[in-house]
Amino acid sequence: MEQTYFRKGFGLKDAIEGALTTDYHSRLVDAIRANGNTLSLGDLTFRLAQEFGFCYGVDRAVEYAYETRTKFPERRTFLVGEIIHNPHVNSKLRAMGVAFLFRGDDGEFDFSAVTQSDVVILPAFGVTVQDFARLRAIGCVLVDTTCGSVLNVWKRVEAYARDGYTAVIHGKYFHEETKATASQVTNFPRGKYIIVRHMDEAKAVCAFIEGAGSKEQLLRDFAHAVSPGFDPDTDLVKIGVANQTTMLSNESLAIAGELRVSTARRWGEAALADHFRTFDTICSATQDRQDAVLKLIEEPLDVMVVIGGYNSSNTTHLAAICAPRVPTYHIEDALCIDPQTASIRHLPVGTREEVQRADWLPPGPACIGITAGASTPNNKIGETVERIAATRGMSLATALG
């Protein structure tokens, strides 16, 4: 009987290594790393954060997708959503013949085109319990690239549900990872969840726990962010805190702290263990990149450039960290920089619309900080540095030796 579920790779790394190098490697980034993450060129100085770009989970997901096309070259291959939130990587997979499946107007994935003889790749964010069951019922080959850090959150949320605690998830209710995480409570008949996007929403939950606020108002405010049949009166008596792995670490910890205080006020410190649990589920790669950019912006920088998909949660949070301290430009890739007009297209922090700015690079000597989200490949980082240098009419040929 054919094996139809794979999670550990196919042992084909040697076969795909050349393609991965061609598609994602950067000699320039290697050279900058070797020079202490600094590059001086004319009157420009570039400083790379110590940690940036592809993390282990993303690396694994991309490699596994490439291996899948090598393992099953004659089969139709589908991908549920996006492998990661990076347009360059997803474009490469399309060019390799991978067809993408997206949610329809009803909010559900349409799997009607998938047959038993097809291959379906599950993304690094994972899929919901319900979507996994639907695909298993089809009988197609499933290649699961779900990140290990995400799986750790799932285990935590499942433990909460098993023990009768409602999962309070710090995350974005519309994000695929959070959808998948929240769905894990449905493995248990009485599993419940509520998703809080930021501190203000967490404080609304805290207020209700402490006896203030309206049940009806809370349900209206969280209509899209609670489990079916959610009842605040009973489902906020015992809570366990978790988070989307790519959220701001300090905010997640602060939210957990607020919920702990409110629970202690309601039930008493002595009874806290019977009503509250928490566990920091920010992944180490996200934490490392946030710590590295915090250290980088302690230096005198004139401009900070953050590279990564506009729908990448960890990338947008890196930009949010930088923006209060230094002029920050979140760009999707190097093509957002136009050397001819010396302009940049970017997504300002906290907005949804890309804008163009002509005077973004200050005249004279300038120090430019560079970082990238965990789903951004090195070649996109190298290309960004090249286009910034070209804005000043300089070539990076000498930097490559």
Report on the architecture of this protein.
The protein has 401 residues and is an alpha/beta fold. It folds into three domains: 25-55 and 285-400, 4-hydroxy-3-methylbut-2-enyl diphosphate reductase, catalytic domain (Cobalt-precorrin-4 Transmethylase, domain 1, 3-Layer(aba) Sandwich), CATH 3.40.1010; 56-147, 3-Layer(aba) Sandwich (Rossmann fold), CATH 3.40.50; 149-282, Cobalt-precorrin-4 Transmethylase, domain 1 (3-Layer(aba) Sandwich), CATH 3.40.1010. The chain has helices at residues 13-24, 27-34, 56-71, 87-95, 129-138, 148-162, 176-183, 199-209, 215-221, 232-235, 249-267, 284-296, 313-322, 378-391; strands spanning 5-6, 38-41, 44-48, 77-80, 98-101, 119-122, 141-144, 166-170, 193-196, 239-243, 276-278, 303-307, 328-331, 337-338, 343-346, 355-357, 366-372. Strands 1-7-6-4-5 form a five-stranded parallel β-sheet. Helix 8 runs parallel beside helix 11. The protein is globular, with a radius of gyration of 23 Å.
> Which residues form runs of ≥5 with pLDDT under 50?
none
Largest sheet: 5 strands, parallel
Q: Count every beta strand, where a strand is a DSSP E run of 2 or more residues.
A: 17
Provide the β-strand percentage band.
Answer: 15-25%
C-alpha termini separation = 54 Å
User: Share of helix among residues?
Assistant: 25-40%
Provide a brief overview of the structure:
By secondary structure, the chain is α/β, with parallel strands linked by helices. The protein contains 14 helices and 17 strands.
